[in-house]
Amino acid sequence: MSTVLLIEQTLNGLQFGVMLFLMAAGLTLIFGVMGLINLAHGSLYMVGAFAAAGVAAATGSFLLALIASLVAAAIAGVIVEMTVIRRLYDRDHLDQVLATFALILIFSEGTRWVFGSFPLFLDKPAWLSGTVMLPFGIEYSLYRLTIILVGLAVAAGLFWMIARTRIGIQIRAGENDREMIGALGVNISRLYTLVFALGAALAGFAGALIGAIQSVQVGMGEPVLILAFVVIVIGGIGSIKGALVGAVLVGLTDTLGRLLLPQLFGLFMDPSAATTVGASLASMAIYVLMAGVLLFKPSGLFGGA
Amino acid sequence: MRRETMLNATLMLILLGFPLWAWSVDEPFLITLSTRAVIFAIAGVGLNFALGIGGLVSLGHAAFFGIGGYAMGILAYHAQTYTALAEWPVLIEGTKSMPVIWIVAIVASALVALGMGALSLRTTGVYFIMITLAFAQMFFYFTISWPTYGGEDGLSIYVRNGFPGLNTMDPIQFYAICYAWLVVVLFLVHRAAKAPFGLMLSAARQNGARVQAVGQVPYRLYLVAFTISGAITGLAGALFADLNRFVSPTMFSWQTSGEIMVFVILGGVGRIFGPVAGAALFILLEHVLGGLSEYWHVYLGAILLGVVLFARGGLFGLIAGREVAHD
Q: Looking at the keywords, is Cell membrane present (chain B) (predicted)?
């Protein structure tokens, strides 16, 4: 195995992790501030991807498509928050799980109704296709590199927003004591809607960026959602830093596991059996990672309490 | 008689009478629908044991449903192809015998539930929900990438497994087996809920600190409940696989976990017979709404949303009153 391949796959893992972070950040914020577990977060990812695919097909502009994904997911988030989610803040987690499961059914089948079952295609723009040369003679996809950089920029922006801006202060205060910031005159229901819209926009944005690599189809959100759950469990619920670390860990474990495990088994098994066993175990690698973290830190790497 | 008891009896009589009527007018499809309802009811009763009595919101019960299904699939596949399951250290062969398959399914899913529970129960609340969901997803991806037993395509079993003295390919006879299992499971769960263990489990849900103060360990109670719950759902999985004569990774999917939870909620959480009503209602909705539109999940979602937001006791809560039995 060449070093170039290893570095390439590490970058792929990083790209995967950064996208998971966009999903996990929204989930963890929503849980941290509102105490809500939102299964429908994957649907917002899907909404973003479909909006981007629709706008890209109509206008041919990738930038417009990205903006559309942000706007559409945020609007969907606001509508869902104001009609349904708002009623769930005081309920127990069971009710939240069920109501948001119901939302998934409505979103998924509704989208299938409107767009049909066939995947849509969202092409990456010409100015982002092709490859770039990195140091040490590594050729890497320009689009994936852009995703990594954009994702890291969004992460930095998010950290800045939470640490430095007024809204960030309110979010942090909301995580600590919901009643108190309400009593201090912060419009709490507007803050909740805002946080939900922010999480939704991040998810929609991730959906659009990934939609250009994979296909845009109904049900694309839920596998990512479950991985984002794994990320949050590893990182600790409510912690943005935990979400970033967890996302990169999961991204790297998954990508490198698929590369390295078959080769590891190839050392002492015949090649076809090694591929089978390696691939099967690689599909379990991130869950083993999660179980391992749980054994030592039941509330995640950066979880409080 | 209390209204809930009457509702329970009516429900079981309908589940007995409807398939017999369908049989007398020669409508095997309706018998199959009823069989699905009864099997889903068993799965729901399993989840309800952990969820309703113990308060454990598990979104990973598809794992046990799938383990039960694959226990049937793998054993029957080896019997069907005349290959040994394992030759070393002892020769293990496949089987087409339902009782053996049931035992294997129950034991296997109980063991998986024990392992999964031992890890997941270290956490509570929303962590627990996410972790159970993630573990079920692990099995889903594992079965997809494991080619020996069909991988993504699943396994087809050509002839339904046998039960001594019965022709299981006859829909009404297979229904009788499933119905009998439902009765047995309901009886056992009812007894367990009334036994010291069940009372203590219920107490642990309501106030863990007090249970600890009288010398019980909530973690152990939860773990036993989770294991029993998984074993029951595993049995349902084996029956379901036998009904379809087919197993695939879909049994492990997160939608399956969600649907099992929907059975419990539609019926009413914490009521022993709740999932029976919920599963029957689900099948009815699937049949009626599915006939109206290909996209019937939209309506199901809307109904579910309505139940969660406005009718929290489910079907039982609507009919038998809000307060949970005074017992």
A: yes
